[in-house]
Design brief:
single chain; alpha+beta; four-stranded antiparallel sheet; 8 strands
Length: 328
């Protein structure tokens, strides 16, 4: 038999006063609240205390379409289960993320078994309902805010970290502008290899590319790398760098190429795509050359060789030793 919707609970949630709620709510609030209650997990709706229902409903209402995670819980008075509603941006939801949430909730609440149900339609937020059945030896209580922070940390994506790093580094206006251009352009292979914060430097280099200046370079020393280990990133607009061309250039400059990682960064058109070549190198330079000077000399020399302004030959090894640029 189908259960009737408990309308008195809807009225209770709509009419109960709250010090934190404004006296008059905007138009559409009643409709949004009705949607929240009509889609509320039915078994919970018949069992949850009215105070807990009210706080959850008002919390969901305040959340709106904000792209943030929220956790609402209530505990069965007989300690049989804890009901958990997790709201998360819909584009972030996946089976993998749901399993992460499940493991965190089981560990924090002392669960023996978990049932779940996901609601993905209606708003920009996905709602996952977890019914955590408690084990006899479950902890006596839990900190909901701390649990919410743990879930939020598990839900963070590479894109979220990149946006925060860009805003922190470039300021909000410029950071968000760069995030809109580059945030979704990186392939999975790049995201797996490069931390989001390290991508900020790459974005600066790529943003400096233009048809008149289609090449950028960055010589760097990997953190924790062995003596003599370096990295070189080559950024090229519109076309990749052919390994059979770049390898002899690097070897003539005294570099031993250990590995290369290639990434195509999407653009609106093929001519706007950026190709990033990340070389792992081994070389031994003159000890009196400081890293900043060496990077400047090497980048300038490689760019001149690449453009055909300087011959690619063994004389270019002099860049690493007497600190003088190559000549024709």
């Amino acid at each position: 038999m189908r259960r009737a919707f408990p309308k008195h609970r809807c009225f209770a949630a709509r009419s109960k006063p709250s010090r934190s709620a404004p006296a008059r709510r905007p138009a559409g609030t009643a409709k949004a609240l009705q949607h929240t209650l009509e889609t509320y997990p039915r078994d919970d709706l018949f069992q949850i205390p009215e105070d807990a229902l009210y706080e959850t409903a008002i919390g969901v209402l305040a959340l709106g379409d904000r792209h943030r995670l929220r956790l609402f819980t209530w505990r069965d008075p007989f300690d049989r289960f804890v009901s958990c509603l997790v709201y998360v941006p819909r584009e972030s939801y996946s089976t993998e993320l749901r399993l992460k949430f499940q493991r965190i909730l089981v560990e924090a609440l002392g669960g023996a078994h978990v049932d779940f149900d996901a609601l993905l339609s209606g708003t920009q937020l996905a709602r996952i309902h977890f019914m955590v059945r408690l084990a006899p030896s479950h902890p006596p209580g839990f900190d909901r805010k701390d649990l919410e922070r743990r879930l939020a940390a598990a839900a963070r994506r590479w894109d979220d970290d990149l946006r925060d790093a860009l805003v922190e580094s470039e300021g909000e206006a410029r950071g968000l502008q760069l995030e809109r251009r580059w945030g979704h352009a990186f392939p999975g292979s790049y995201r797996e290899r490069v931390p989001a914060r390290a991508a900020v430097h790459d974005i600066r280099k790529m943003a400096a590319l233009s048809p008149d200046q289609p090449l950028q370079l960055a010589l760097y020393w990997p953190l924790g790398g062995a003596d003599g280990r370096l990295g070189l990133k080559v950024y090229r607009l519109g076309a990749p760098v052919v390994l059979s061309d770049s390898l002899p250039m690097l070897e003539h400059m005294g570099m031993r190429v250990l590995a290369e990682y290639n990434h195509r960064i999407d653009g609106a058109a093929e001519s706007e795509a950026v190709y990033v070549h990340d070389f792992e190198l081994e070389a031994h330079a003159a000890p009196e050359i400081d890293p900043e000077t060496m990077a400047r000399l090497f980048e300038d020399a490689f760019a001149r060789v690449f453009r055909g302004e300087v011959e690619s030959d063994d004389f270019n090894r002099l860049v690493l030793w007497p600190a003088s640029p190559p000549t024709r």
